[in-house]
């Protein structure tokens, strides 16, 4: 019998396993269920490319809330010249998490189980975790640490998708097998697009890259030095009030990074005050603008993108993808320009879906998620951000009642918290959950 079965061994699952191992009493056991062979990586930290950097400086990336300098000390020993302001290579952060997981004190309490969880059943107060190979684990608690999922297909092509269209940018072969000068369409202009552009360059591709999104906005860069925070607690009762407050601070001369960062600790409380209609209005009208200012790129990454834009190697187009037509040796991609009925067609060798991780759990087709939905234990939120949870991260069932012993963290908790995707938030959630699991 395990205290907790953690389903998912990416960053959020690893952070929870580490915190549980530190809090567990002698003889206590938890299980970390890992479907792949590389625990602690997940989509973000499993990249092989050193050009993929953290989007947060090292000073805020400690895995341990009670030791904020832990990652900085580790990084200095592994990357000469690194300091608290360094935006470290993401593969290094994956190695950091993996090293924590292998610590003897953690390994004494956390059993790593290879396999894929495909279903949950309940027997009195015990959860039964069913694995794809027929094994069943018993646990008092279950944590869904599913992390980032591959993006949804904006064209919903399914099995009819041409082979030159890559629906999962992190799947095997997304950036391989291209002629060096072949044109490539990147669908999306966010951080995923930036990652793919850098990965293509790292693989020797030098052909033109065309990035297409409805608004054509790129992630903003971090400042080379931390911006000065704004004093005071804003009282923002509506999205309109939030926009007005932001504009006033900018008019006073504050750096936009300071404005956005000053809201960070207040965001969950502000979000929870807003009605469902107000949240929908924010998501419809302001989400993209918020995202590009909130989810920023490391200065070195932003500089690389600027250089690609200046040289013409990367071009940004505003519009909506309409169709993909297979042709000999590639695709004819057609999009409708923003604010117009005009359609443009361009021939490319490959199109890659870079629209960002899927979050609408009403459409996620993982067997475990499908089964939990059918049982009424997992309820997608109406805005497609994640799933419904209580303040401790317990899933809420179809009646709005917390499901005893069934928890989640990270991206799945966005409907309740909004700010729930970055390591600084996830490590706090992991520590709180670990205390619950350790009794």
Task: Describe it.
This protein is an alpha/beta fold. The protein is built from 15 helices and 15 strands. The strands form 2 sheets. Strands 1, 2, 3, 4, 5, 6, 14 and 15 form an 8-stranded mixed beta sheet that branches. A hairpin with a 2-residue loop joins strand 4 (117-123) and strand 5 (126-131). Helix 1 runs parallel beside helix 4 and helix 1 (11-23) packs across helix 15. The longest helix has 15 residues, at 423-437. The radius of gyration is 22 Å and the shape is globular. The model has no long low-confidence stretch (mean pLDDT 92).
| Helix share, percent | 25-40%
* Class from helix and strand fractions: alpha/beta
Work out the strand percent: 15-25%
N-to-C SSE string, H for helix and E for strand: EHEHHHHEEEEEEHEHHHHHHEEEEHEEHH
Question: What's the mean pLDDT score?
Answer: 92
End-to-end gap: 14 Å
* Largest sheet descriptor: 8 strands, mixed
Radius of gyration: 22 Å
Low-confidence stretches: none
Number of helices: 15
Q: What's the count of strands?
A: 15
Principal-axis shape: globular
Notable traits:
alpha/beta; 8-stranded mixed beta sheet; 21% strand; globular
Topology:
Elements: E1 2-7, H1 11-23, E2 30-34, H2 42-45, H3 70-78, H4 90-101, H5 104-107, E3 110-114, E4 117-123, E5 126-131, E6 136-144, E7 165-166, E8 184-187, H6 191-202, E9 209-213, H7 239-251, H8 256-263, H9 267-273, H10 276-285, H11 287-294, H12 299-311, E10 314-327, E11 330-337, E12 343-348, E13 350-353, H13 367-375, E14 394-396, E15 402-408, H14 414-417, H15 423-437
Parallel strand pairs: 1-2, 1-6, 2-3, 6-15, 7-13, 8-9, 8-13, 9-10
Antiparallel strand pairs: 4-5, 5-6, 10-11, 11-12, 14-15
Helix pairs in contact: 1-4, 1-15
């Amino acid at each position: 019998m395990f205290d907790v079965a953690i389903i998912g061994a990416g960053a959020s699952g690893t952070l929870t396993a580490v915190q549980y191992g530190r809090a567990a009493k002698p003889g206590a056991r938890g299980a970390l269920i890992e479907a792949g062979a590389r625990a602690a990586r997940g989509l973000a930290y499993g990249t092989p490319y050193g050009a993929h950097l953290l989007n947060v400086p090292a000073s805020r990336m400690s895995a341990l809330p009670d030791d904020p300098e832990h990652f900085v000390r580790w990084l200095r020993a592994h990357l000469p010249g690194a300091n608290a302001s360094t935006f470290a290579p993401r593969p290094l952060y994956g190695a950091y998490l993996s090293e924590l997981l292998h610590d003897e004190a953690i390994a004494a309490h956390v059993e790593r189980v290879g396999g894929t969880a495909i279903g949950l059943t309940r027997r009195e107060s015990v959860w039964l975790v069913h694995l794809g190979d027929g094994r069943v684990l018993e646990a008092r608690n279950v944590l869904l640490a599913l992390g980032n999922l591959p993006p949804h297909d904006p064209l919903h092509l399914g099995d009819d998708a041409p082979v030159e269209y890559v629906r999962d940018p992190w799947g095997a072969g997304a950036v391989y097998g291209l002629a060096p000068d072949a044109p490539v369409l990147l669908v999306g202009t966010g951080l995923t697009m930036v990652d793919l552009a850098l990965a293509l360059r790292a693989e020797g591709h030098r052909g033109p890259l065309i990035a297409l999104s409805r608004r054509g906005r790129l992630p903003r860069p971090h400042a080379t030095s931390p911006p000065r925070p704004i004093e005071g607690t804003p009282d923002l009762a509506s999205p309109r009030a939030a926009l007005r407050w932001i504009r006033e601070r900018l008019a006073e001369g504050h750096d936009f990074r300071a404005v956005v960062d000053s809201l960070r600790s207040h965001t969950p409380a502000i979000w929870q005050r807003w009605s469902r209609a107000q949240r929908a209005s924010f998501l419809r009208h302001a989400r993209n603008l918020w995202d590009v200012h909130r989810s920023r790129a490391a200065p070195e990454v932003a500089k690389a993108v600027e250089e690609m834009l200046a040289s013409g190697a990367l071009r940004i187009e505003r519009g909506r993808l309409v169709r993909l037509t297979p042709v000999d040796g590639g695709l004819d991609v057609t999009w409708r320009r923003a604010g117009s009925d005009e359609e443009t067609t361009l021939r490319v060798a490959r199109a890659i879906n870079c629209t960002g991780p899927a979050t609408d759990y009403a459409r996620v087709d993982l067997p475990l998620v499908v089964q939990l939905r059918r049982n009424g234990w997992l309820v997608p939120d109406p805005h497609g951000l994640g799933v419904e949870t209580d303040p401790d991260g317990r899933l809420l069932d179809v009646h709005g009642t917390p499901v005893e012993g069934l928890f989640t963290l990270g991206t799945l908790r966005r409907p309740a918290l909004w700010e729930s995707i970055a390591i600084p938030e996830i490590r706090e959630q992991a520590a709180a959950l670990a205390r619950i699991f350790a009794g």
